[in-house]
């Protein structure tokens, strides 16, 4: 009994300590991120690594998601004679929900995992320590630009996701199922507003980029410096980011559309 | 000995990890212009000592002074200013794997000085020439042998013209030729560039060959100190065990454990 209580207490304390560590790191990341104002090249390099290189997976996934939405939307709406509104359904689903959420989940798997592994390995091979000994702050030089890049890349990728998804929906609805193209676009145009729809989607994707970058970097930075430690941190990073994104999505949706 | 001759001064150093005291009252001096060796068995805290000197760890007691400054009390900017005058060669080399040899050596210069590209190139090539690897400048770290990687790391460690260079186990896992090259390099760079060097190692012969002064650490305490000749002549049992590589002696062969008969008869557990 005492043993169990002890274990529970230790787990709680460890959890709180990790949370505290993560918040402190976040503070330093936010402060360090000003480095990209002085040296924009650092940001450009990282946006390329986490953003541009994720474009293919984002675009291909978006195309399929949009096509599925077109199909499902059509089969549901056609019963009510509202099949002309399939464009509205596809666009609203994408800009409000699926764009930001699926982008963030894919980002966690494609870019977040590589950030965690990269930072974890840099730590395990003493590259971060050696940087410190050269009087270069690794949090500012290595971590902060990656954090800023996640913050920039996720909203941009989410925008690409929504745009490509709408094209996927169009291909299915207009190309395959024979809905009138004019009705598809005009219904969409009249139903989707910049505020709240698009703006809320952008706010969500910024929040998800923030969380994805923060968790990925924290997991890598605190990974045990062994092969097993880095691999565990990478897996946990993706799992935690996914859960955090889905939970946060519920919260934000409840706040935005009540 | 006047204060000016001592670059780094450690007094009554106390440092613990968990419940174990890694250092329990250690005094030592790193003198200017000399190669000072810190020797001791694995796990005796030699690398920890370098990290304490570089301010990456804080001691639990005592004083660590480098260039007249109390390292643990320095603010972050002050510590970084001091570190620009220190170079450290990590055991693994710790080269940045995404940068070429040239860019690795250029890294600290680029970070701290805005030099025109031709001047930077000249500086980096001179550093690489000093370690004999000017021709390897466009290789990536993955294409280097272990010894070459360590030499590149050495070129990087002296890139900012430090006054103190710290070597963490520079000879471990090197073939005899590379070992010879490293010994020669450490000594030559120290004398030509007017550096002070700290070499942490458990390779007895190599270390005694280049050191001007040697400290032997074991069990958190200073076991012996002196010139290599003085140590070779020492008749302390612990020093002899270490220098003559005897398996058992004051440093026990067995990790602490209950009696063997007791454990075998008990028959439980792993």
TrEMBL record, chain A:
UniProt keyword Transport, yes or no: yes
Subcellular location: Cell inner membrane
NADP as UniProt keyword: no
Membrane topology term: Multi-pass membrane protein
TM regions (residue ranges): 48-71, 147-178, 198-217, 238-257
Keywords from the named record: Cell inner membrane, Cell membrane, Membrane, Transmembrane, Transmembrane helix, Transport
Major place of residence: membrane
Quaternary structure and partners: The complex is composed of two ATP-binding proteins (MlaF), two transmembrane proteins (MlaE), two cytoplasmic solute-binding proteins (MlaB) and six periplasmic solute-binding proteins (MlaD).
Database matches in PANTHER family: ABC TRANSPORTER PERMEASE PROTEIN-RELATED (PTHR30188), PROTEIN TRIGALACTOSYLDIACYLGLYCEROL 1, CHLOROPLASTIC (PTHR30188:SF4)
The family this protein is said to belong to: Belongs to the MlaE permease family.
Its job: Part of the ABC transporter complex MlaFEDB, which is involved in a phospholipid transport pathway that maintains lipid asymmetry in the outer membrane by retrograde trafficking of phospholipids from the outer membrane to the inner membrane. Probably responsible for the translocation of the substrate across the membrane.
Protein name as catalogued: Intermembrane phospholipid transport system permease protein MlaE
Source species taxonomy: Bacteria, Pseudomonadati, Pseudomonadota, Gammaproteobacteria, Chromatiales
From TrEMBL, chain B:
Keyword field: ATP-binding, Nucleotide-binding, Transport
Domain of life, source organism: Bacteria
Gene Ontology MF: a single term: ATP binding
InterPro entries hit by this protein: AAA+_ATPase, ABC_transporter-like_ATP-bd, ABC_transporter-like_CS, P-loop_NTPase
Occurrences of domain ABC transporter (ranges): 8-244
PANTHER family: INTERMEMBRANE PHOSPHOLIPID TRANSPORT SYSTEM ATP-BINDING PROTEIN MLAF (PTHR43023:SF6), PROTEIN TRIGALACTOSYLDIACYLGLYCEROL 3, CHLOROPLASTIC (PTHR43023)
Designated name of the protein: Phospholipid ABC transporter ATP-binding protein MlaF
